[in-house]
Amino acid sequence: MAGRNEQAVIIKKIEETGGHGHHGGAWKVAYADFMTAMMAFFLLLWILAASDEEKLRGLADYFTPSLSESGGRGDGLLDGMVLGQDGVMSGTDGPQSPVQLPSFGQENPLAVFDSRLRDPDSRVVVEFDTRPDGTQDSQTINTGENGVADGIAAAQAAAESEAEAEQLERAEQEWQETQTRLEESITDRVTEDPKLEAMIDNLLFERTADGLEIQIVDKNSASMFATGSARIEERTRDLLRIVAEAVVDLPNEISISGHTDSVPYARAGTYSNWELSADRANATRRVLVDTGVNPARITRISGLADTVPLDPEHPTAPENRRISVTLQYPQDAQP
């Protein structure tokens, strides 16, 4: 009977499901705050990058603290008076403090955004690419107050100057190649023609300060014009046509000059070597135009008589009687 009065022991077994406890949601709040701060930061960077100088200056003025410059004196109720521990009002009626108070960028608020503006004596050395001759160009730019704008303008001017120099160099190189091609083309055309092959010595090329000068000169055995006349011999006409065909598609301006020797012109009256040389130059112009050269390209016709001899030591030499056709330098490749 005693066994029946004993209280039964009940054991309750609880099996846990799931491998991890609950960690809470605090990390989500921290992560959200972090993302909000990053968004605000990048938004600020975007605003600064998209704002012009006037807006940046206004933004800097907004965040610049206003300081009292009265030297410790006030204009309010206490007029600069301070209540001490003993209850006595103290203050100063003296002059303003000689100590220079910090301005926090009041003079130049943009210095807050660019440290180079804070040092008026700072310098920046801008180095450019090495030149073809091996030297390297450099320039010192002031980056003090307003120095950033000046530095940018100077750098842009230097870059434009460098680009212009490179363009002129390329144009000069192209012009040199054009002259070489012209000389070779005219020479080949003359030597390939059996009737003109013997006149190759009458053809001279000279690269002058004005451009490529193509000269057709007299020889003892081959005269370019009839004696004492502006009438062009047939072989001279054929030679001029070859020259015209070589330059017809080029944009360069052309000048033509006639030259004679120092032998006085025998025709009576006022007609002299001046008129003869000018008439021969004009006759040459007509041949070039008839061959297809644009008349607008011919800018000067001149008769120089015997003032510019090809052989100064022998004024009466036949080489001094000649016609010069000058293909002038292009405008973008002036030496």
Overview of this structure, please?
With 335 residues, this protein is α+β, with helices and mostly antiparallel strands. Among the domains are: 112-172, no CATH class; 193-333, OmpA-like domain (60s Ribosomal Protein L30, Chain: A, 2-Layer Sandwich). Helices cover 36% and strands 15% of the residues. It has six helices and nine strands; from the N terminus they run αααββββαββαβαββ. Strand 3 and strand 4 (136-142) form a beta hairpin. Mean pLDDT is 76; it is low at 68-72 and 88-92.
CATH fold call of the domain at 193-333 = 60s Ribosomal Protein L30, Chain: A
Low-confidence stretches: 68-72, 88-92
Tell me the strand percentage band: 5-15%
What is the tally of helical segments? Answer: 6
The CATH homologous superfamily of the domain at 193-333 is named OmpA-like domain
* Portion in helices: 25-40%
Spatially, the strands of the biggest sheet line up as 5-6-9-7-8
Summarize this structure as a short list of keywords or feature phrases.
335 residues; cell membrane; transmembrane; transmembrane helix; 15% strand; alpha+beta; 60s Ribosomal Protein L30, Chain: A; 9 strands; two-stranded antiparallel ribbon; 5-stranded mixed sheet; coiled coil
Topology diagram in text:
Layout (H helix, E strand, L loop, with lengths): L1 H4 L20 H25 L2 H11 L18 E2 L5 E2 L32 E8 L5 E7 L4 H46 L10 E5 L3 E7 L16 H14 L6 E6 L13 H19 L6 E6 L18 E7 L7
Would you kindly provide a brief summary of this structure?
Belongs to the MotB family. The chain has 335 residues and is an alpha+beta fold.
